[in-house]
Write a structure and sequence with these properties.
Blueprint: E1 3-8, E2 13-17, H1 18-21, H2 25-33, E3 41-43, H3 48-63, H4 78-81, H5 85-90, H6 95-107, H7 111-125, H8 130-137, H9 145-154, H10 156-161
Parallel strand pairs: 1-3
Antiparallel strand pairs: 1-2
Helix pairs in contact: 3-6, 6-7
Length: about 160
Protein backbone atom coordinates (compact mmCIF):
# COMPACT_ATOMS: atom_id res chain seq x y z
CA UNK A 1 0.00 0.00 0.00
CA UNK A 2 1.51 3.24 -1.16
CA UNK A 3 0.76 6.30 0.97
CA UNK A 4 0.97 10.06 0.85
CA UNK A 5 1.40 12.39 3.81
CA UNK A 6 -0.30 15.76 4.12
CA UNK A 7 0.50 18.73 6.36
CA UNK A 8 -2.74 20.45 7.34
CA UNK A 9 -3.18 24.14 8.06
CA UNK A 10 -3.28 23.39 11.79
CA UNK A 11 0.15 21.73 11.62
CA UNK A 12 -1.06 18.12 11.79
CA UNK A 13 0.48 15.38 9.68
CA UNK A 14 -2.00 12.94 8.08
CA UNK A 15 -1.13 9.87 6.02
CA UNK A 16 -3.56 8.26 3.58
CA UNK A 17 -3.51 5.75 0.73
CA UNK A 18 -2.46 7.28 -2.60
CA UNK A 19 -5.07 5.21 -4.43
CA UNK A 20 -7.81 6.82 -2.36
CA UNK A 21 -6.39 10.34 -2.49
CA UNK A 22 -5.84 10.46 -6.27
CA UNK A 23 -9.60 10.93 -6.62
CA UNK A 24 -8.67 14.52 -5.81
CA UNK A 25 -7.49 16.28 -8.98
CA UNK A 26 -5.18 18.44 -6.85
CA UNK A 27 -3.49 15.40 -5.28
CA UNK A 28 -3.33 13.51 -8.58
CA UNK A 29 -1.66 16.45 -10.32
CA UNK A 30 0.78 16.84 -7.44
CA UNK A 31 1.73 13.16 -7.60
CA UNK A 32 2.05 13.28 -11.39
CA UNK A 33 4.50 16.17 -11.04
CA UNK A 34 6.36 14.83 -7.97
CA UNK A 35 6.22 11.04 -8.30
CA UNK A 36 9.42 10.28 -6.37
CA UNK A 37 8.96 13.01 -3.80
CA UNK A 38 8.30 11.68 -0.30
CA UNK A 39 7.81 15.11 1.25
CA UNK A 40 4.55 16.12 2.89
CA UNK A 41 2.00 17.74 0.64
CA UNK A 42 0.92 20.99 2.31
CA UNK A 43 -2.81 21.69 2.52
CA UNK A 44 -2.77 25.31 3.73
CA UNK A 45 -6.56 25.66 3.49
CA UNK A 46 -7.60 22.34 5.08
CA UNK A 47 -7.55 21.50 8.79
CA UNK A 48 -7.06 17.96 10.13
CA UNK A 49 -10.69 17.34 11.11
CA UNK A 50 -11.84 18.35 7.63
CA UNK A 51 -9.14 16.28 5.92
CA UNK A 52 -10.25 13.26 7.96
CA UNK A 53 -13.81 13.87 6.75
CA UNK A 54 -12.58 14.21 3.13
CA UNK A 55 -10.67 10.93 3.43
CA UNK A 56 -13.81 9.22 4.79
CA UNK A 57 -15.72 10.44 1.71
CA UNK A 58 -13.00 9.35 -0.74
CA UNK A 59 -12.79 5.90 0.85
CA UNK A 60 -16.53 5.46 0.42
CA UNK A 61 -16.73 6.60 -3.21
CA UNK A 62 -13.77 4.39 -4.13
CA UNK A 63 -16.17 1.41 -3.91
CA UNK A 64 -19.51 3.18 -4.47
CA UNK A 65 -20.95 5.55 -7.02
CA UNK A 66 -20.59 9.25 -6.36
CA UNK A 67 -23.79 10.87 -5.08
CA UNK A 68 -26.50 11.47 -7.65
CA UNK A 69 -28.15 14.79 -6.87
CA UNK A 70 -31.22 15.81 -8.81
CA UNK A 71 -31.22 19.49 -9.69
CA UNK A 72 -32.98 21.65 -8.88
CA UNK A 73 -33.30 20.25 -5.40
CA UNK A 74 -36.71 18.71 -4.90
CA UNK A 75 -36.63 18.95 -1.12
CA UNK A 76 -34.75 20.65 1.72
CA UNK A 77 -33.95 17.29 3.33
CA UNK A 78 -30.78 15.60 2.11
CA UNK A 79 -32.23 12.11 2.54
CA UNK A 80 -34.72 13.02 -0.21
CA UNK A 81 -32.07 14.71 -2.36
CA UNK A 82 -29.41 11.98 -2.64
CA UNK A 83 -29.88 8.45 -3.92
CA UNK A 84 -27.60 6.80 -1.31
CA UNK A 85 -28.48 7.47 2.34
CA UNK A 86 -24.81 7.20 3.34
CA UNK A 87 -24.27 10.62 1.74
CA UNK A 88 -27.22 12.16 3.61
CA UNK A 89 -25.75 10.97 6.92
CA UNK A 90 -22.19 11.92 5.95
CA UNK A 91 -23.08 15.53 5.15
CA UNK A 92 -25.12 16.06 8.35
CA UNK A 93 -22.51 18.26 10.00
CA UNK A 94 -22.54 21.60 11.81
CA UNK A 95 -22.65 24.68 9.59
CA UNK A 96 -19.00 25.65 10.22
CA UNK A 97 -17.79 22.13 9.41
CA UNK A 98 -19.88 22.15 6.25
CA UNK A 99 -18.28 25.40 5.11
CA UNK A 100 -14.86 23.84 5.79
CA UNK A 101 -15.88 20.88 3.60
CA UNK A 102 -16.99 23.23 0.83
CA UNK A 103 -13.61 24.97 0.93
CA UNK A 104 -11.62 21.71 1.13
CA UNK A 105 -13.52 20.09 -1.74
CA UNK A 106 -12.88 23.16 -3.86
CA UNK A 107 -9.20 23.46 -2.89
CA UNK A 108 -8.56 19.74 -3.41
CA UNK A 109 -10.72 19.67 -6.56
CA UNK A 110 -13.07 16.83 -5.63
CA UNK A 111 -16.11 17.49 -7.81
CA UNK A 112 -18.45 14.92 -6.24
CA UNK A 113 -17.78 16.35 -2.76
CA UNK A 114 -18.24 19.88 -4.10
CA UNK A 115 -21.62 18.86 -5.50
CA UNK A 116 -22.70 17.16 -2.27
CA UNK A 117 -21.59 19.99 0.02
CA UNK A 118 -23.11 22.64 -2.26
CA UNK A 119 -26.39 20.72 -2.27
CA UNK A 120 -26.35 20.68 1.53
CA UNK A 121 -25.76 24.45 1.61
CA UNK A 122 -28.64 24.85 -0.85
CA UNK A 123 -30.95 22.91 1.48
CA UNK A 124 -30.28 25.57 4.12
CA UNK A 125 -31.51 28.22 1.69
CA UNK A 126 -34.39 26.39 0.03
CA UNK A 127 -37.79 27.90 0.80
CA UNK A 128 -36.31 30.48 3.20
CA UNK A 129 -37.13 34.15 3.23
CA UNK A 130 -34.41 36.74 2.89
CA UNK A 131 -34.60 37.47 6.62
CA UNK A 132 -34.40 33.76 7.53
CA UNK A 133 -31.29 33.36 5.34
CA UNK A 134 -29.67 36.40 6.92
CA UNK A 135 -30.38 35.06 10.40
CA UNK A 136 -29.04 31.61 9.55
CA UNK A 137 -25.80 32.95 8.03
CA UNK A 138 -25.56 35.70 10.65
CA UNK A 139 -25.52 38.46 8.05
CA UNK A 140 -26.73 41.87 9.08
CA UNK A 141 -28.56 44.05 6.60
CA UNK A 142 -26.79 47.39 6.52
CA UNK A 143 -28.69 48.76 3.54
CA UNK A 144 -31.06 51.65 3.93
CA UNK A 145 -34.72 51.46 2.89
CA UNK A 146 -33.91 53.60 -0.16
CA UNK A 147 -31.06 51.31 -1.19
CA UNK A 148 -33.29 48.23 -0.83
CA UNK A 149 -35.99 49.90 -2.92
CA UNK A 150 -33.44 50.75 -5.64
CA UNK A 151 -32.18 47.14 -5.68
CA UNK A 152 -35.74 45.82 -5.99
CA UNK A 153 -36.46 48.18 -8.88
CA UNK A 154 -33.19 47.32 -10.67
CA UNK A 155 -33.89 43.60 -10.38
CA UNK A 156 -37.61 43.58 -11.09
CA UNK A 157 -36.93 41.89 -14.44
CA UNK A 158 -35.50 38.86 -12.59
CA UNK A 159 -38.65 38.45 -10.51
CA UNK A 160 -40.75 38.60 -13.67
CA UNK A 161 -38.62 35.91 -15.35
CA UNK A 162 -39.68 33.36 -12.75
Amino acid sequence: MSTITFMTKDGESVTAEKEIMTQSVFVKNYLDDNDDDDSELPLPKVNKATLDKVIEFLKYIKDHDAPQIEQPLKDSSMDKVVDDQWFAKYIEVPKDDLLDLVMASHFMDIQSLQDLSAAKVATFLKDKTEDEMRAFWEVTNDLSADELKWIDEENAWAEQAF
